[in-house]
Known about the structure:
It contains eleven helices and 13 strands. With 330 residues, it is of the alpha/beta class.
Amino acid sequence: MRIGLAVPQYGFSLPGGEIRAADAIGWSQRAEELGFDSVWLSDHFFYSFARYGAPDEPIAALEPETTLAAIAATTSRVRLGILVECAAFRHPALVAKAAATTDQLSAGRVEVGLGAGWFEQEFEAFGFPFGTVGERFDALEDALAITSGLFGGDSPLSHDGRVWSLHDGKLTPPPVQHPIPIWVGGKGGPRLLRAAARSGAGWNIVWRVAPDDYAGALDGVHAACDTTGRDPETFGLSIGLYGTVGRTEEDARAALDRARAAFPGDAMRDETWESWRADTLSGSIEQVRERADAFAALGVTDLVVSPWALPFTVAEPEQVDLFAEALLGR
């Protein structure tokens, strides 16, 4: 099982309350030094915790494609990706073209993630129609067909879609990888899993998942593979998890207390150690290893750590070191 790190990307991602491209680059380099297999960004124009009762002022965000290119040029080993790019924000030909160029910059280390999008406020603020869930899935299915076709084919590609279309498109120059892997991100459900089975390297879900619940969701994965004729042995499984870790369980619990106190709004007001432990990667080093092993036993191929109670956040650098020790230093 490969272990990845969600690197700082937002105004809340570091203790100082500001974010620079150099921060994402620096933490990607640190992840590489520690032995992580991959580093990941996400895709938002801005972030907000207003839904949890926090102020509604937009929170700064780094643009992921350009930031990923900078990380590609300043690292040498870790694989690089975005969990996940919103299919409605960019024509998929542009996504494929950017990925192909970054794949060259990185000597073949890029992985693409695509999802339908969920944050209505940013759609409205930047002039994208939010539409219905079905319409956003239309965009995702078109994006998957176009990107996978461009990555996997040597001939010009045409696709007449509901949202995105392409006529005799071809990636020149091509990426190093043939094809670049594509992760399909979302909570699951038959339509998403079928799309992933048809066009993706696998399925990604974040940020709170219990092993028992995940085991139940795998029935849907197997059904999607069966429906689309996909060999499930070729279908990757990626999970991103929040977590707090410590030398002892008490240390990890204390870290949760600090994370809960710092969380914007009141979303964690009723969180207990037991509820947090149930569906995150949290506990002592031994408990974190046990939870990771439980997911590996279910067939998970990629585990991405977000070492706090916020996405793409490094609030305490020691947490990253401890997760590296727990998951990489066996």
